[in-house]
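Q: What does the assembly look like in three dimensions?
Context provided by user:
Components: two
Sequences:
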Amino acid sequence: MTDLEAFRKETRAWLEENCPADMRTPMDPMKDACWGGRRWQFASEGQKLWLERMAARGWTVPMWPKKYGGGGLSKEEAKILRQEMRRINARPPLSSFGIWMLGPALLKFGSEAQKMRYLPEIARGEIRWCQGYSEPGAGSDLASLQTKCEDKGDHFLVNGQKIWTSYADKSDWIFCLVRTDNSGPKHHGISFILFDMESPGVSTRPIKLISGNSPFCETFFEDVKVPKDQLVGERDKGWTIAKYLLTHEREMIGETGALKPMAQMVAEMGVTPDPLTRAKINKISIDEWAFAQTMNRMLAEAKAGASLGAKSSMLKYYGTELNKRRFELMMDIAGHDGLEWEGENSEDGKLARLWLRTKGNSIEGGTSEIQLNIIAKHILQLPGA
Amino acid sequence: MSLLLNDDEKMLRESAEGFFADKAPVSQLRALRDSRDVTGYSPELWADMAAMGFTGVLVPEEAGGVDMGFMAAGLLAEQMGRNLSASPFLSSAVLAATALRKGGGEQAARLLREIAAGTSVVALAVDEGRKHNPAGIETLASPSGNGFKISGAKSMVVDGHVADHIIVAAKTDSGLGLFLVPKDTTGLTVERTIMVDSRNAARLTLDEVEVDGAHLIGTLGDGEAILQTALNGGRAVIAAEMLGAASAVFEQTNAYLKERKQFGRIIGEFQALQHRLAHLYCEMELARTAVLAALRAMDKNPKSAGPIVAMAKAKLGDVARLAALEAVQMHGGMGMTDELDIGLYLKRIRVLSELLGDADYHTEHLYG
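A: Here is the predicted structure of the complete assembly.
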């Protein structure tokens, strides 16, 4: 037996033994995800046990080094773990911006002390992080951000406002882009800092969206004191980290296009479509398939662990636009039923709310237009883009 | 299923890149067109392709082929698409070779050998009307003596005008049959049809054409399955040729946007054009994936490849046409001139998207 076969066998046995029964049922990412953090209320004993057991093995972040709370697995081992989890329908033990976004940035740009301090508590799901990027005057033009960060000798002083901060009202800490120098070009003078959302001067206000939900907040900073060792990387050079993180975010959002196939959603609805609708479904099915395969191909082409770079813009653009097309058609097919907003029959307008949610996919993390700009500039090498 | 090329495939692609750019560039197609060449392709090129093993890419080694499979055939077709190289590759080396191989028998073995050697051109006659419709074949083969008597009409028989043999799909009392008809058989009339892309096809009339039993490919029972495999192989390879043609116009357009000046600016600075080309880039990436997946699926298991091939043919039908249309528009007036190659690509892509089922056909018949 090869090492990998042995690893698969051990992993399978451990998962069978340790994954609680209620963590092996289909998960609604909107309702059933475990986000962790100081104020997290576990939905069940199973959810709590599952997080604790996986974290103890480092398997909430299988490929991070062991000393930072990870599993220290190779790419091949991590793939086996994913396959074995899928085999028993195991839910992800933890959903976390710390894992998806801040962690990779800290591993690349953080100091050893910062890695030792922040990564293990991310891996254990003890601290829930949010991302402070956009501002009222800095959306697509992110680099024009103005949240002020002054050097006060033994600490930084932060003043300003962020917007579209996902789950800011539920998060413990924030990773935040701030302006430390206003004298040069806009991409210079941006710094990447971390601070506790319980710091005096921090307040949040949820924004109600067209879907009726409020996943985003406005976040205000008034004379927030931030210890100086919470600056990541070099002062004034945070744009590099910001871009790196955005690439990660794009790959993540792009993956929404690889969700449940359209044909399956229609079948579950119990609808027999007319020929014209059938043709539209088939057209979308072709794009779903080609897109999912393209994502696999690009990941396989990229060297192990390497970033997709500008190609992530392609995935983000195409995946989110495709998802919007899918839900427009789902609403067409659902007809009158899809218009229900409240009540048991529609699970409180589940489809309508999902349809509305997808509109944000092509805006958040850089609009479709920004992604096309990036493709034009970095891949097509067009002038002035 | 890996969509990455292995080392052998990469080597083949490289040698095909050089070969077709060198031996069969767009200027060759122009020369054939302008001289109203009787064959419509260069027999020297076909001989060179045979020497390289390209004509035998799907022919078994015992019949003198190199038997490299559909991925290899697709990599070759992609380069033919880039250069608009004219040859009977699709008709003989892909469609006929696949049908003959699957059918088996002595006749087939002899013809496969000739295809690999580049000494025979064999065409496949399926369609009869305006659109691809293998389910609607009306040509009839009735038992006669120890063979069959075939009557009917065929259209869009690619390379039919130069074929030494034509494989005719006809219905019989016991299912679909594929019949090998030599070009000089009594009752067979071949009319050359010069197409919009300066390539050739033929209209056939079959008036009580008599063939003996040995000319049936395979058996009557599996005619349908043989045809299906040949068509799917053809569709996957056509998709690959479309990818090559679309890549060529895409790259030419990208380059043009960096050199053409208007209003004192390089037109590639205009966001209206940047976004359209960036969108096309994304579609081209999906198209490439679809082609690779279809070719791999054919190599893995032709029986289950149908839906994947259909998706690829449909996707390429849409994307290659978008690439050609955008190329003409973004080249402005120059895109309308015969001097530029853009128009030649537009025409070829139009033909390829129609051949063996357009995007609508395959979208409708996704699951058979």
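Follow-up: Chain A has three domains: 3-123, 129-237, 241-379.
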